[in-house]
Amino acid sequence: AFSAYIRSGLAMFESLMVPVGFRKYGMTEPQALSVLGMFKGMVTPVIFFPATLIGSFSRLIVPEMAEAYEKQDRKKIEAVAVRSVKATLVFSFFVMCVFLFFADPLGKTLYSSTEASAYIRLLAPLVPLMYLDNVVDSLLKGLNGQVTTMKINIVDSIVRVLLVVFLLPKTGFDGYLFVTYISTLLNGTLSINRFLKISKIKVPVAEVIFFPLLSSFTAVLAPFVFFMIVAPASPVFLKITVCALVYALIVWFDDIRNLLKKYLTKMPKSGRIATNIQAPSGK
Prior knowledge:
Shape: flat
Radius of gyration: 24 Å
Number of helices: 10
Number of strands: 0
Helix content: over 70%
Largest sheet: none
Strand content: under 5%
Distance between the termini: 79 Å
């Protein structure tokens, strides 16, 4: 409880110091509150809105991981962890690509703001790490790593406060974006590194990272180019829906391919068994 109070206090102090830093940079108070309100009230909700699905999912894996940890079932721990990480990255890479390609129409449709569009695109590369960090924290809690998670969050909060105090008066809102990047990278890297050390699992990089990233990029780029040439005035949510359908088909075909691959790897053994059984009939 005490550590939670420390983190809350640091977060409150940061919130107070951000407008102060903007004013020291040369912004008026209305300008500072306006840019901060746009970032926290317009951009951040868009970035984290898809994460509501990840939040529900991450809460469900805590008891499953805790049960496997209590039984010291290494196979189940690895299976749950790999499945959770893969599902998160499959989803978050797609969201990242959508924000990268459709930031302009999203900002104009939702807020009639080109500034919001620019900041949505700037934060898009952080989406996979933001979402994955949330899931990894839940996995750590299932492995009895609540204290570790809290320590990492406190370290992150301290770094944020220090950067806000010393950086914002010199760099303004650009510095605040830099703080957001550093904080996300620091928290995510520490959490993932700690989880891999505790769980001792091996993550299949090609399956979990490279394929979802390439598939997401392809699934969003192809419809984006198609609509840009054929129907540029189409509603942005129609374009995103088409991208989601294309991506779902790619993921579905990959799942079928993996099932066939597993089935075919068993075929030689089955063939040998069948040959041994039929051998006596040749006499």
